[in-house]
């Protein structure tokens, strides 16, 4: 599998295999024999409607492993970990098929969010290393000024949507 370098320490971007024939496509996401696999916690899917924004979230213990098998999304990751070599970096990734089918590992401590950039709802798959625990995560509004990124300037978003 092909790896892309991230500008944020601990984030791993892996190109995923797609095997297509006349019947459709098989989409790989995660295998237990991959180097970055630690353990299975849970797997779930999040549907994002066109132009909808789901941001910001940060986990303290859980590692996320995200892929977009349906539609396309813009994933934004912000590093505000004080002891990180990449403190202050923002990574913007486009995920979706067929050209940008990647898995992105987001370690604990990083803020992240996403928006649907396709005309159809996008589906985001997450295979995390721990089951969801509400006490493990923080959520802030997408317009929070503590994160130096503007969703409304970066997408075709209109006031009131």
Got a strand count?
A: 13
The sequence of SSEs as H and E is: EEEEEEEEEEEEEH
Rg from alpha-carbon coordinates: 16 Å
Low-confidence stretches: 157-161
- Work out the helix count: 1
Mean pLDDT: 93
Question: How much helix is in the residues?
Answer: under 10%
Going by helix content, strand content and strand pairing, the class is: mainly beta
Largest sheet: 6 strands, antiparallel
**Percentage beta strand:** 35-45%
Instruction: Give the strand order of the largest sheet, numbering strands 1, 2, ... along the chain.
Output: 1-2-10-7-12-5
- The N- and C-terminal alpha carbons lie at a distance of 39 Å
Which shape, going by the Cα principal axes?
globular
Key words describing this protein structure:
161 residues; mainly beta; 6-stranded antiparallel beta sheet; 5-stranded antiparallel beta sheet; 1 helix; 43% strand; disordered C terminus
Summarize the structure.
With 161 residues, this protein is mainly β. It has one helix at residues 151-154, and strands spanning 3-4, 12-15, 18-21, 24-27, 42-48, 53-59, 64-70, 72-78, 90-96, 102-106, 111-116, 122-128, 137-139.
Structure description:
The termini are far apart. By secondary structure, this protein is an all-beta fold. It has a 6-stranded antiparallel beta sheet, with no helix packed on it. The protein has a 5-stranded antiparallel beta sheet with strand order 9-8-11-6-13, with no helix packed on it. Strand 1 and strand 2 (12-15) form a beta hairpin. The longest helix has 4 residues, at 151-154. The chain has one helix at residues 151-154; strands spanning 3-4, 12-15, 18-21, 24-27, 42-48, 53-59, 64-70, 72-78, 90-96, 102-106, 111-116, 122-128, 137-139. It is built from 1 helix and 13 strands; from the N terminus they run E-E-E-E-E-E-E-E-E-E-E-E-E-H.
């Amino acid at each position: 599998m092909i790896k892309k370098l991230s500008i944020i320490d601990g984030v791993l971007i892996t190109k995923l295999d797609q095997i297509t024939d006349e019947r459709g496509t098989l989409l790989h996401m995660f295998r237990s024999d991959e180097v970055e696999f630690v353990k299975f916690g849970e797997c779930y899917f999040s549907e994002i409607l066109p132009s909808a924004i789901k941001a910001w979230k940060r986990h303290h213990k859980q590692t996320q492993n995200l892929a977009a098998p349906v539609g396309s999304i813009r994933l934004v990751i912000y590093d505000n970990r004080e002891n990180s070599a990449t403190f202050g970096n923002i990574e913007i990734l486009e995920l979706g098929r067929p050209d940008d089918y990647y898995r992105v590992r987001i370690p604990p401590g990083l803020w992240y969010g996403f928006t649907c950039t396709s005309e159809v709802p996008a589906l985001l798959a997450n295979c995390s290393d721990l089951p969801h625990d509400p006490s493990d995560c923080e959520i802030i509004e997408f317009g929070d000024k503590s994160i130096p990124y503007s969703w409304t300037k970066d997408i075709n978003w209109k006031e009131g949507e």
